[in-house]
Write a structure and sequence with these properties.
By secondary structure, the chain is an alpha/beta fold. The protein has helices spanning 11-21, 51-59, 78-84, 97-106, 120-130, 135-149, 164-179, and strands at 2-4, 25-27, 31-32, 47-48, 63-69, 72-77, 90-94, 112-116, 157-160.
């Protein structure tokens, strides 16, 4: 399952709620070349790799998908899917739109969900308000967001995150219906 959308739209928060609300989901940990933010731990938020290590792992075929975003490389390691696919319903990938297009080609049955902001100005306010990026990085992220928003029609579902509770409910209902788990089927420990 792919969940994407512009930086600052609330994907991470919605995914945490989704995993809590829908049984049998696990989130893949992406790899990146960006530096950890305060409080982030290698292997929890991301697998933090040097650019040379990332490049050599791409060359070795270790990634299902990878792309450059805001000057850093991001990707999904094949091992993340292999290690998590045994006793679950779906692996959730929080990736950008180019990575989502790669997944669409490689895994045609993957659920593809785009999280959109209610407006470009609200996205700017969220990016500034979270206080994690320099002004130049925010402008880069907003320029990228414009290109990403233009691609939202490529996705199965678009959820507008105007109100967090409403968006979380809509996301959980959509995913549960798509996975046919709304009947609370057991996840394998019966």
């Amino acid at each position: 399952m792919v969940i994407t959308g512009p930086s600052g739209v609330g994907k991470g928060t919605l995914i945490r709620r989704l995993v809590s609300d829908v049984p049998g989901l696990v989130v893949s940990t992406s790899a990146t070349t960006r530096s950890p933010r305060p409080g982030e731990i290698d292997g929890r938020e991301y697998h933090f790799l040097s650019r040379s290590e990332f490049d050599s792992r791409v060359e070795a075929g270790d990634f299902l998908e990878s792309a450059e975003y805001a000057g850093n490389l991001y990707g999904t390691l094949n091992s993340e899917l292999e290690n998590r696919a045994e006793a679950i319903r779906a692996v959730v990938l929080e990736i950008e739109t180019l990575g989502a297009a790669t997944i669409r080609r490689k895994v045609p049955g993957a659920i593809q969900i785009f999280i959109a902001p209610p407006s470009p100005e609200s996205l700017r306010q969220r990016l500034v308000g979270r206080g994690t990026d320099a002004p130049l990085v925010i402008e880069q992220r907003l320029a990228t967001a414009t290109r990403e928003l233009a691609r939202q029609s490529e996705f199965d579902t678009v959820i507008i995150n105007d109100d967090l509770d409403t968006a979380a409910t809509e996301l959980a209902q959509h995913v549960a219906a798509r996975l046919d788990c709304s009947s609370d089927k057991p996840t394998g420990d019966s």
